[in-house]
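The material for today's practical consists of a large collection of protein records. There is nothing in a record beyond a sequence line and a structure line. Backbone structure tokens are a discrete shorthand for how the chain folds in space. Nothing more is needed to start thinking about how sequence determines fold. As an example, a complete record with its sequence and its structure tokens follows.
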Amino acid sequence: MIAKGEPAPGQQLPAEPELCARLGVSRGSLREAVRSLAALGLLESRHGSGTFVSALRPGQMLAGFAATVDVLPLDGLLELFDVRRPLEAQAAALAAARADERVVARLREVQQRLAVSENEAERHALDREFHSTRCEASGNEALAALIDVLRARGSHYSIYGAVEADTIRLASDLGHEALINSMAARDPAAAAAAATAHLSQTEVWLRRYAPLPDDGPAAG
């Protein structure tokens, strides 16, 4: 029914008796289905008002997927890099073609704070803000939401404690600078190459050090 637009995004579901009759199911089965669809982001319950079809935006649709990605072991995370690489490159290229000066200025400001921060939690937050801002500048909500989901698990694998920590940090910062410069130049090809190189370097470090999952930040 939802896939056919009956009811449409934002509209309230019909009353339980009507839905049960229409679908030929019991109230218990219907309520279980509603809970499942709510967990997937398709429905939302509004206290005192009823159950409504969500806006069906990409970020909501990927919420359930995010929960599964967030428990992947390192080998599963590394497999995601093959998926992320073309997506990150495409997002960077679109951002370079579409971003305005305000976005570039925002990225420079975030990177300046990131470069001088000595707090891992702050660096993680700033790194995520940097990449989220860059991906949102692509103008494609679905692409930005999917990349955010695929990136999230990496935050549990810290590589900043490695023996090459200073080199890792410097390379990460330089990767960000390359992304900023390619966007400022409105060069989609350079932006795609910078995103690919930045992600590939992070993958190399993760494979080399194979960190255990924790709550610390990872580069990239």
The beta strands are 43-46, 50-53. The chain has a mean pLDDT of 90.
